[in-house]
Design brief:
By secondary structure, the chain is mainly alpha-helical. It contains six helices and no strands. The chain has one domain. About 25% of the residues are buried.
């Protein structure tokens, strides 16, 4: 009754499902850039800010959530506040550092 191949397949599927559910991913910098431009930033500023947030280690879920909201037409400030309310205030610490690094 030993099904090693079948068990490995199910184990692999369970692992993929667990990673998908927990949201382990990476920040979508391109989505953030387009969202920032749609919300009113110029292209150079949007690129600097999006890349700086990625370098500062902003977690993927709130990063991508805010980017998605801005791409749907929400203003930058509103999108980040909504992401803060959903994911917690610690999300904004690396965002503030990234913003400062682009204000030169």
């Amino acid at each position: 009754m030993k099904k090693t191949r079948g068990n490995k397949v199910w184990l692999g599927l369970a692992l993929v499902a667990a990673v998908t559910v927990t949201g382990c991913g990476s920040p979508d910098v391109e989505l953030m850039k387009t969202g920032l431009v749609k919300s009113g930033r110029d292209a150079a500023s949007a690129q600097c800010f999006a890349e700086a947030m990625d370098k500062e280690g902003v977690k993927a879920d709130p990063f991508n959530y805010a980017a998605k909201l801005m791409n749907e037409g929400m203003k930058e400030r509103e999108a980040f506040n909504k992401a803060r309310r959903k994911y917690g205030a610690e999300f904004l610490t690396p965002v503030r550092k990234a913003r400062k690094s682009c204000e030169k």
